[in-house]
Amino acid sequence: MSTLRKIEEISSQKETYTVTVESSIDMLNFKNTYLTMSPETDVIVQLLIYAHDNNWRINEYDTVAELTRQLENYLTEDEVLEIASMSTVNANIDELANELNSIAPKGIEFITIERNGEKYELDVTDEDIRKIFLDMI
Fold first, then answer.
1. Cα 18 from Cα 68, distance rounded (Å)
2. Which SS3 state, helix, strand or coil, does residue 45 take?
3. Of 38, 61, 108, 121, which residue has the fewest beta carbons closer than 10 angstroms?
């Protein structure tokens, strides 16, 4: 009889959270995962959770426009006017959009956070999102 033995255990495995994003279009189901050590401080996880909870249009076609629109919503008019380099902000938005699209190219219908078989819930506040956008300018 065949026997499977674990020969090496990754020490960080117990500390790693798996964020799973699922969506479906017609009869096709899409499921992608993202690994993080700290979902509560991970910008990508915070944006995914907040986008899901607030019906943001995160998908391969709309993410850049959605992030740009939300940046304008979460910053004050004075903060937007004080942006020194719009090209830097656009580059930051493009980078975030690429990362979000690699995890949620077809949108976010369901999102779960798990570690060692246990599920977690993450509450992301308006202030968390505002801080992310402030860090982009």
1. 27
2. helix
3. 121
